[in-house]
Amino acid sequence: MSHLADVVWHRLTGLMPGELKKAELTWLAFPQQHLALLARRRATMIVNRVRLFAFLFAALTPLWSIVDFIVFDHPLWLALAAMRLLACGAFATLLLCYKPSGNLFDAYRAMAILFAIPTAFYVASHTLLGTHQLTGMSAAIASGYAFLPFVLLAGLSIFPLTLLESLLVASPILLAQALAGYLSWTTLSWPSFAGAFWLLALISAVSSLAGMSQLAFMIALVRQAIRDPLTGAFSRGSGEEVLEMQFIISGRSNAPLAIAFLDLDHFKSINDGYGHEAGDEVLIATTEHIGHVLRRGDMLVRWGGEEFLLIMPNTDLGQAEIAIARLRENGFGKRPDGSPLTASIGIAERGADQTQDWKELIDKADQRMYQAKQAGRDRFVSSIP
Fold first, then answer.
1. For residue 50, is it within any domain?
2. How far apart are CA 178 and CA 173, in angstroms?
3. CB count in 10 Å sphere of residue 8
4. How many CB atoms sit inside 10 A of residue 125's CB?
5. Residue range of the domain that includes 337
6. What's the confidence (pLDDT) of residue 376?
7. Which of 26, 87, 122, 212 has the fewest CB atoms nearer than 10 Å to its CB?
8. Which residue from 84, 92, 382, 45 is spatially nearest to 219, judged by alpha carbons?
9. pTM to 2 decimal places
10. What is the pLDDT of residues 237-291, one digit of tens each?
């Protein structure tokens, strides 16, 4: 099994060189393991592209009524025009009412609505056209309605979706095509129907591959954007975004949220005495030491220079103190002269400190870090007296 996974991995890296790490391979198939920042950015992109799609459909859907007016008789044209106006109104409502929120389930809902509108229009128009005997130009124009599922499945390729998500979106469209065939069972040409269905399935596969390729690029770009290039910890910008998101979640669910502000003691003397390259090596080693004792869900952010921020969701003040004590016991690595590297740490917790926003929470932890410095370094200070 592991050999098969290695073969698949090497094949994929040949198609997408340098984009993904091996641990990220499953991210292309399932969204559950995506980082919160990746999910948030992906949700924003999906909703923006849904709105673009909705704008195009809202503008183009009623225009085709001009062609219908020319080739169809008045009762049929009137019924199709009413359907088009309803679809246009639905697309316009989606465009105006849906705004990016960074929530992936909102993005899923937006996509479901986007694809449900033309799918319902396709089934209704196909059923209506099947009740009329059309010949010549009107029959040729009516056959154009059958291409709508192809347009929808091809449009799926503009979204950065996992394989599972693509299948879930494409399946209702394929089922709608099968339903349309069932409704016209008596007049159905099976060879042409089978060929059209096979082509739809092929377009679904190509669109899924295109969406996964977009997702691979996005994973690589987000990884580069959110990680500090030297230490591999979260960068300050992404750390602020994570903390803001965790603060909102903590407030809504009334869950604890603790942070620890770490400043490495006498780090400037390392750069001055041994050079910046030695200082960089110490920072890398420190990040590795901290990473060994991080609990699942904790996030380490390089705040700047020798300063780090540790974000601890679902952690009250007492639990945060225990975690920091364990961190100090494990140590932060060695200085170039072999002596232990120490840190001054300030701890703050949303509920205990009654902070109103994430910036105030950082200020509390920062102030306590300076208190630890003034008290002699190599210690932590929390809000407990």
1. yes
2. 9
3. 11
4. 22
5. 236-381
6. 93
7. 26
8. 45
9. 0.74
10. 999 989 998 999 899 899 999 999 999 999 999 999 999 999 999 999 999 999 9
